[in-house]
Amino acid sequence: MSHSPLLEHANPPAETVQAVEAAFDQARAFVRDFDPDLVVNFGPDHYNGFFYDLMPPFCLGYKAHGTGDYDSFAGELDVPTDIAEDLAQFVVDRGIDLAISRRMEVDHGAVQPMEILYDGNAAAKPVLPFFVNSVARPFVPMARVRTLGALVGEYFATTDRRVLFLGSGGLSHDPPVPQFATASESQREFLTAGRNPTPEFRAARQANTIETARRFAAGEADIMDLNPEWDRAFLDVCRSGRVEDFDRYTADEMDAAAGHSSHEVRTWVAAYSALRACGEYRVEYEFYRPIREYIAGFAVTTATQV
């Protein structure tokens, strides 16, 4: 599912809000019926928990807490450390260089979907938080993301746990996140070591995003437009079950066609690849809209094994 820090800070048409909420209702019903024992949460970060002072392509949290950005969940997540440790060893033994964190910070990109699914409580279920770098170059080839997901799925395929694989990210979008190559010196310092900002700095940063969204919806913001054609083609791959087709996505093409934050679909690739490693699957529900007020191609899907 997509996320957006603007869900509570923007004013799309009422019909759009109702359609998004109906999609969330579908996801809630799916998760309620499935009643997972554990959630494997593949999520991005937006320079709230991970910075260029040390930027891994993947990181699994042995413990984690929310940063509270955009008034999101700021407490401790319920992370089963013993399972996380065993899973990390399983993954690295099979050739993926996985970082781990015993004090991971996760932002709205990871906790908002849990809040949506569990009535505001991101700690409602045991969760394994997987950070997938989706903003900071260099990016690993998409095939590595797919392999990570497949190994996670392989790990759980032989257990008797009911596991929900959750991937969270917008599709095409290019919000006002500075790029290191073109950033000012002060921006580069933030991108490198900006954790634990002052309340004033965080409020100003968030206000800039909210104002950009307002101007974008009005056709006034100088940021890349959404790309519904690209979004629908990506969803076609998700629906097909041919997860190897994700490999054709390259970082340069994604930047050019769908915006610098389209890399958040890497979380979707990991989640769908994990599910596919457990067997063939069927997408049961799909919602998509390009929503300028959220600066995102916005989608929600549910899928289960056949």
Automatic annotation (TrEMBL):
<dbReference type="GO" id="GO:0008198">
    <property type="term" value="F:ferrous iron binding"/>
</dbReference>
<dbReference type="GO" id="GO:0047070">
    <property type="term" value="F:3-carboxyethylcatechol 2,3-dioxygenase activity"/>
</dbReference>
<dbReference type="GO" id="GO:0019380">
    <property type="term" value="P:3-phenylpropionate catabolic process"/>
</dbReference>
<dbReference type="InterPro" id="IPR023789">
    <property type="entry name" value="DHPP/DHXA_dioxygenase"/>
</dbReference>
<keyword id="KW-0560">Oxidoreductase</keyword>
<comment type="function">
    <text>Catalyzes the non-heme iron(II)-dependent oxidative cleavage of 2,3-dihydroxyphenylpropionic acid and 2,3-dihydroxicinnamic acid into 2-hydroxy-6-ketononadienedioate and 2-hydroxy-6-ketononatrienedioate, respectively.</text>
</comment>
<feature type="active site" description="Proton acceptor">
    <location>
        <position position="173"/>
    </location>
</feature>
<feature type="active site" description="Proton donor">
    <location>
        <position position="108"/>
    </location>
</feature>
<feature type="domain" description="Extradiol ring-cleavage dioxygenase class III enzyme subunit B">
    <location>
        <begin position="1"/>
        <end position="298"/>
    </location>
</feature>
<dbReference type="Pfam" id="PF02900">
    <property type="entry name" value="LigB"/>
</dbReference>
<keyword id="KW-0223">Dioxygenase</keyword>
<dbReference type="InterPro" id="IPR004183">
    <property type="entry name" value="Xdiol_dOase_suB"/>
</dbReference>
<comment type="similarity">
    <text>Belongs to the LigB/MhpB extradiol dioxygenase family.</text>
</comment>
<keyword id="KW-0058">Aromatic hydrocarbons catabolism</keyword>
<keyword id="KW-0408">Iron</keyword>
<protein>
    <recommendedName>
        <fullName>2,3-dihydroxyphenylpropionate/2,3-dihydroxicinnamic acid 1,2-dioxygenase</fullName>
        <ecNumber>1.13.11.16</ecNumber>
    </recommendedName>
</protein>
<comment type="pathway">
    <text>Aromatic compound metabolism; 3-phenylpropanoate degradation.</text>
</comment>
<comment type="subunit">
    <text>Homotetramer.</text>
</comment>
